[in-house]
Amino acid sequence: MPSHRIVSCRARIALALAILSLASGALAQQGGTPPPPAVTVVTVESSDVTLTRLLPGRVSASAMAEVRPQVNGLITERLFEEGRPVEEGSPLYRIDAASYAAQEAAANASLAQAQAQMQQAEREVERMKTLLERRVTSQQEYDDAVAARDVAAAAVKVAEANLLASEIDLDRATIRAPISGIAGLSEATKGALVTAGQATPLTVIRTIDPVNVDVTQSSAEMLRWRRASGTIAAGGPGDTVLTLKLADGSTYEHTGRLSAAEPHVNQQTGVILLRLEFPNPEQLLLPGMYVQVEVPQAVVANAVLVPQEGVTRDRRGRPMAMIVTSDNVVEARQITIERDRGNQWVVTEGLDSGDRVIVAGLQKIAPGQQVSPEERVDAETGDAGQPGAGQPAAGQSEAAQPAADQAEAGQADATQPADGQTDAAQADAAQAGAAQPADGQAQDDPANDATVATD
């Protein structure tokens, strides 16, 4: 027999013995008890939970005035800066007032004439009265003098009214700000002809500190909150604190209040309009902005906040949570969820204060199984057991679904064969891992190289 054939046979025998030795060691380890799987838990606490709702809304000015001329004429001067604050009563435009000044002068002259005529009529009444006492004139002539005096007095009042109207028109030739606020862009320039009550405003003034935020809420949703069970209490506007979410996702630093609500439901949309008021000293909020308002709507008594990654669904779609008992044994609990709050569920039934809810490692456990729990630690604060401190890995909830399904179907006893299969798989992996170094050694052995070359 050639020498290289002998070397090849010896190498194969050595490789087979190494595999058998590793396999026997793995089989010996298979008979031992595997350590309980490690899971991450969060200890929950019951408390009164305020339910909030994000409602979309638009910012509007708390006061707005469209400035229009009240007299006709040519604009001779603009007296304000566009986009700058103006005070109530400050002049904005001047209109050519020559014709209105002439009307005022004519009204003054008419008033003087009427007053002179009234004085003459009063003297005539006094004269007729004296003649009547002397029986020199008739009663008819005296009555005519009194009537003429009354007509003259009425003419004086008409002249006074005409004078007042001319003075008003002359004053309106200077257009003033009706409210305090921020003046917008000017729609008219010097030399423009304007008319009283024209459709196009000269400018618009808006008061933006404070501002209003109008939001809408479904009437059905409001009824649902108000008709909820006794564990839910509707929040009142007196102690309501409202926060604002801006379009870029940031939170507005000032809180607002509910100032008014429409007392009726829109028949077309079925919503109720709520008007909120927010201070705006930095003028960060501008009319027309889209915002979201976090509005407290109800309070749930003795509720438990559970991270969403700790809740799965059974085959019937019912929410379930896996609990670690005091003996470190997994227990499946059916729970009742009121609604979500951020990345947490508001649970009203099924959990008690102090329960340890599994939030990581659900894919490795089943009800009735012994586990090794570890409290989750908030990476920012270092506190343990803070709900929502961490996020599940992608697909973790999906991986936990079979365990919840087993809890629903009463298949907790089926976990032992699964464990046995897992141990067998570990033994196969150990054998496969042991074969790798042997292969590597065989490749490094010159005898093996020779065998390969011969084959």
Structural key phrases:
single chain, 455 residues, alpha+beta, conserved putative lor/sdh protein from methanococcus maripaludis s2 fold, Elongation Factor Tu (Ef-tu), domain 3, 5 domains, eleven-stranded antiparallel sheet, six-stranded mixed sheet, 7 helices, 21 strands, 35% helix, disordered C terminus
SSE string, helices as H and strands as E: HEEEEEHHEEEEHEEEEEEEEEEEEHHH
Proportion of helical residues: 25-40%
Number of strands: 21
Number of domains: 5
Number of helix segments? 7
Q: Return the average pLDDT rounded to an integer.
A: 79
Structural class: alpha+beta
Region (Disordered): 365-455
Keywords: Coiled coil, Signal
InterPro entries: MdtA-like_b-barrel (IPR058626), MdtA-like_BSH (IPR058625), MdtA-like_C (IPR058627), MdtA-like_HH (IPR058624), RND_pump_MFP (IPR006143)
Coiled coil: 104-131
Short description:
This protein is α+β, with helices and mostly antiparallel strands.
Question: Care to describe what's here?
Answer:
The protein is α+β, with helices and mostly antiparallel strands and 455 residues long. It folds into 5 domains: 3-18 and 417-454, no CATH class; 38-51 and 302-415, Beta Barrel (conserved putative lor/sdh protein from methanococcus maripaludis s2 fold); 53-60 and 205-300, Efflux pump adaptor protein, beta barrel domain (Elongation Factor Tu (Ef-tu), domain 3, Beta Barrel); 72-96 and 174-200, OB fold (Dihydrolipoamide Acetyltransferase, E2P), CATH 2.40.50; 98-171, Orthogonal Bundle (Helix Hairpins), CATH 1.10.287. It has helices at 3-30, 98-133, 139-172, 219-226, 396-409, 415-444, 446-454, and strands at residues 38-43, 46-67, 73-78, 85-86, 91-95, 174-176, 181-183, 193-194, 203-218, 232-234, 243-245, 257-261, 271-278, 290-307, 311-313, 319-324, 330-334, 336-341, 344-349, 356-360, 372-375. Strands 2, 4, 7, 9, 10, 11, 12, 13, 14, 18 and 19 form an 11-stranded antiparallel β-sheet that branches. Strands 1, 15, 16, 17, 20 and 21 form a 6-stranded mixed β-sheet that branches. It is elongated, with a radius of gyration of 46 Å.
